């Protein structure tokens, strides 16, 4: 299962159910991580999008220590433009991790 670090502000918002999406830059680092979750690219006209055959689970950890607070989230991964109030920069495309459910681990 993939574990991703996340800042406290966003961690708390996801945990409480306020934030429904997490964003990661589209770059080789995340391409390789999401590839291992069997995320497959689709070419839709000129737009590049991602899909997941079924939802995946990702652990978000508030910090880098194994003792840091963690939540396990069921997510669907796509690409697109995120919401500024949830941390996305305007007019920038991201991997979007749509949060379907949250389970506290620590």
Question: What would you say this structure looks like, in words?
Answer:
With 106 residues, the protein is α+β, with helices and mostly antiparallel strands. The chain has one domain. It is built from two helices and seven strands; from the N terminus they run βαβαβββββ. It has helices at 8-16, 28-35, and strands at residues 2-5, 21-25, 40-44, 47-51, 56-61, 70-81, 93-104. The strands form two sheets. It has a five-stranded mixed β-sheet. Strands 3-4 form a two-stranded antiparallel ribbon. It is globular. The model has no long low-confidence stretch (mean pLDDT 84).
Features:
alpha+beta, 5-stranded mixed beta sheet, 2 helices, globular
Proportion in helices: 10-25%
Question: Helix and strand string, N-terminal first?
Answer: EHEHEEEEE
Backbone CA Rg: 13 Å
Reported for the largest beta sheet, the result is: 5 strands, mixed
> On the 0-100 scale, what is the average pLDDT?
84
The general outline is globular
Structural class: alpha+beta
Question: Can you tell me the number of structural domains?
Answer: 1
Number of helices: 2
Distance between the termini: 16 Å
| DSSP, total strands | 7
Write out the strand line-up for the largest beta sheet, numbering strands in chain order. Answer: 1-5-6-7-2
- The residue ranges in which pLDDT falls below 50 over 5 or more consecutive positions are none
Provide the β-strand percentage band. Answer: over 45%
